[in-house]
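Hi V.,

You were right to ask for the full record rather than a summary. Here it is.
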Amino acid sequence: MAFLKALNLRKTYRLGRHNVVQALRGVDVTVEVGEMVAIVGPSGSGKSTLMHILGLLHSPDRGCDPPPSLVFDGTDVAELQDRERTRMRAERIGVVFQSFNLVPTLTAVENVALPAEYAGQRRKTALAAAAGALDMVGMGDRLSHRPMELSGGQQQRVAIARALVTEPALLLADEPTGNLDSENTGELLELLRKCNTERRQTMILVPHDSRVSEACSRVLTMQDGMIREG
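Predicted structure:
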């Protein structure tokens, strides 16, 4: 059974009264357990929209024929109540956004602990897990720094630690190396490979660097809201 299976995902945005943008035009994608998949394509091709739907942050358009379907590890997402979707996202999915979305008033370790707390861990346990995740991405000496005290690359590593802190079954990362230099990109790739192989974490990445695509087991290409292999 596929770990993640999406059929006929469509998403339309209305910008103003007369401007309609079809971000997704019927995307079908299947990802197996433990795969590390890259999604590439030009800006505006629908990559980020797809990632938001796969991460249960947005819903696909309804009223399509055939109806859209998203099955996550055997569970039909359409059948879940909002609370169940939120719980699944908190416990089983880690997301690295293009914009880091760090809470400016919280320290690095407090930011990273948030998903663990949302997933039901006690604060002390969550903070310990967050400290470990930050150490794993080379930020163990910045636990008490707030986002404004960190460089763009450091904020990105905090965001990656936050996505990994609960050891999610699925990691979605939109340009995870976009603010990292060559050396740090290589170190992050090694970390992702380790999580992928040792933890059997399934990963879907939208790469900024071609080395990320080359490290993946499969590459999907998006063009005009549609997807194809290779």
